[in-house]
Amino acid sequence: MKPTVNENINVYLEDRDLWTKFKPLTNEMIVTKAGRRMFPVLKVSIRGLDPESMYTIELHFDQVDSHRWRYVNGQWQPGSKPDPPIQRGPYVHNESPNFGKHWMKDTISFSKVKLTNKTNHTGSTQIVLNSLHKYEPKIRISQVIHTSKRGNETIPVYTTSFPETEFIAVTAYQNDDITALKIRYNPFAKAFLDTNKRDERELAD
Amino acid sequence: MKPTVNENINVYLEDRDLWTKFKPLTNEMIVTKAGRRMFPVLKVSIRGLDPESMYTIELHFDQVDSHRWRYVNGQWQPGSKPDPPIQRGPYVHNESPNFGKHWMKDTISFSKVKLTNKTNHTGSTQIVLNSLHKYEPKIRISQVIHTSKRGNETIPVYTTSFPETEFIAVTAYQNDDITALKIRYNPFAKAFLDTNKRDERELAD
DNA sequence: GACCTTCTCACCTACGTGTTAAGC
DNA sequence: TCGCTTAACACGTAGGTGAGAAGG
After folding, report:
1. N or C: which terminal CB in chain B sees fewer CB atoms within 10 Å?
2. What's the 3-state SS for B25-78?
3. How confident is the model at residue A205 (pLDDT cuts 50, 70, 90)?
């Protein structure tokens, strides 16, 4: 059985307005030992798959250059040489494998992926990145073909990436403007939004 | 392609010790408008699947008799005639479809299924039951066969049920002993466990 | 009245945030 | 010292409990 390579596959980035608020400031994503979720969350919608065929969807993080970056005087500057690269598998979306009609039904969210700077992770949700290196998320769609009674083939049929979602991995935020945007739009950081509002009120008194 | 009907499939109930605490008292499960999780949670481990074949796993609730039950003087008594039966689809485990090797890797938990007494539900996790009727959970394993470019067949290959997990659906607990067991073993009910302990301490003072 | 259902509530579990101080 | 990382923390989101009063 041959893969149904559909020439009409398209992957659309959701929440593009939000991503474009971060992009011009150079976005940052926290990495921790246990793993930290991304914010904004990467979400896509997909069209053009064969509804009855089976697909697996993966998220990669491509290192976009060969620099270790430094934040100096409010500016990101490329350093001399990068840390040794990390070879790790991609994050496989937790609803994989599934039918084309499933993937096209609703927006696909990568909210469960966790970014970490520690190897030796058992969980399938953690992805290891080098801190202070620049990455670009990439989506790969592969078709799952049942070739015989004893095997399956996973054949890439589409790959795309989103420049708007580029970021530098950090262990603590460097740019205060990035921190402010994270607090403003991430519901889980509402504690700090309320504090800011209270401060404003106290200043007004 | 023919289904790989494996004669060696076996499904084992997990947490059997916990279930057998409830069984002799006649277990009860709450149904609510929004849907209520089961406790204990139904968990199984599966062996004997073909690792490379694809399966879907479903949970049914078989009505085990034709009675509407009543709790009178600390005893469950069968009533005369049951309410009209509800015809609804099964709960499909959220990791479906998936490979045999995936299902056999870890214990499979049905923690997300929610029991309700209201029809007209949009969610795929809610299962409608008749209150005061007796049910027995049943697991069905079906193999997914890609028959052609434009279709899949889902063929049942194994079905089993667990007498230990039988229960009567209720809108409020009838038997205080059942309530006590739920509080004792369900972490989400710890508030009431602490209250009991505090009461005991206050009595001791 | 008796029986069953519904709703609100306090109190938990579980975990996602940036902050801050300490560590290296 | 400086740059970066770690761990504890307060404070949110999100949602799972039975209790108890009210409703039908």
Report:
1. C
2. HCCEEECECCCEECCCCCEEEEECCCCCCEEEEEEEEEECCCCCEEEECCEEEE
3. very low
Q: Is the Cβ pair B146, A146 closer than 8 Å?
A: yes
The 10s digit of each residue's pLDDT in B104-146 is: 999 999 999 999 999 876 778 999 999 999 999 999 999 999 8
Distance between CA atoms of residues A110 and A107, nearest Å: 10
What's the CA–C1' distance between B191 and C12, in Å? 5
Strand partners, A11: A46
Helix (H), strand (E) at residue B203: helix B190-204
Residue B50 forms part of a structural domain: yes
Residues belonging to chain B with any Cβ–Cβ distance to chain A shorter than 8 Å: 1, 4, 50, 52-54, 97-99, 146, 149-152
Query: Got the DSSP string for A15-60?
Result: SHHHHHHHGGG--EEE-BSS-EE-SSPPEEEEE---TTSEEEEEEE
Look at residue A34 and tell me if it is in a domain.
yes
Q: Which domain holds residue A166?
A: 10-185
Least CB–CB distance from B97: residue in A52, A97, A150? A97
**Within a domain: B119:** yes
Asked if B144 and B151 touch (Cβ cutoff 8 Å), the reply is no
Q: Convert the pLDDT of each residue in B27-48 to its tens digit.
A: 999 999 999 999 999 999 999 9
Q: Which CATH number does the domain housing residue A157 bear?
A: 2.60.40.820
Chain A environment of B97 (Cβ under 8 Å):
54, 97-99
Predicted TM-score (pTM) of the model is: 0.90
Whether pLDDT at A3 is above 90: no
Provide the domain count of chain B. 1
